[in-house]
């Protein structure tokens, strides 16, 4: 009982819960189906008490994923020119408006970067690891979007 009280007091919340005011339910995610971050955001909201709609007329808040871009660049090479590491980046631009189009969260761009070491392994393994890193970044971007939305609406 004491542990539960301490966790609640420190702000701990289970993953999937979000602090979106009830008066903004239901929420529409625009661009969500076309982007991995949008799909991760939908998963997060469906695991919480926030209701998600696909009908723009029913939505009281609209979170828009305006752009999502993946990129990679060489981060390190050895003296022979062999690539030792890549920087993988994910850029997500988003905003949120109410049903009338009034901004709730201004347009924001976030960039997440991870380093992928390039050891001598199979190409297939590198591709799978790269996709795992991008999925992790997309999930983190969704979490950050929810935090920003919750903070802006308090």
Give a written overview of the molecule.
One of its GO terms (cellular component) is cell outer membrane. GO terms for molecular function: lipopolysaccharide binding. Together with LptD, is involved in the assembly of lipopolysaccharide (LPS) at the surface of the outer membrane. Required for the proper assembly of LptD. Binds LPS and may serve as the LPS recognition site at the outer membrane. About 5% of the residues have low confidence. Helix 2 crosses helix 3. The chain has a single domain, classed as 2-Layer Sandwich (Double Stranded RNA Binding Domain). Strand 1, helix 2 and strand 2 form a beta-alpha-beta unit. The protein has a five-stranded mixed beta sheet with strand order 2-1-3-4-5, covered by helices on one side. It is elongated, with a radius of gyration of 19 Å. The chain is α/β, with parallel strands linked by helices and 154 residues long. Helices cover 32% and strands 35% of the residues.
């Amino acid at each position: 009982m004491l542990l539960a009280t301490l966790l609640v007091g420190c702000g701990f919340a289970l993953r999937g819960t979000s602090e979106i005011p009830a008066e903004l339910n239901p929420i529409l995610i625009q661009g969500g189906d076309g982007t991995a971050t949008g799909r991760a955001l939908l998963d997060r909201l469906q695991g919480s008490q926030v209701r998600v709609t696909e009908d723009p007329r029913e939505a009281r808040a609209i979170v828009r994923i305006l752009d999502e871009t993946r990129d990679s660049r060489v981060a390190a090479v050895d003296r022979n020119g062999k690539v030792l590491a890549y920087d993988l980046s994910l850029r997500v631009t988003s905003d949120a408006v109410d049903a009338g189009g009034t901004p709730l969260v201004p347009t924001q761009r976030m960039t997440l970067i991870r380093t992928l070491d390039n050891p001598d392994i199979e190409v297939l393994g590198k591709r799978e690891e790269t996709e795992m890193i991008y999925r992790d970044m997309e999930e983190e971007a969704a979490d950050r979007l929810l935090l920003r939305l919750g903070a802006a609406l308090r």
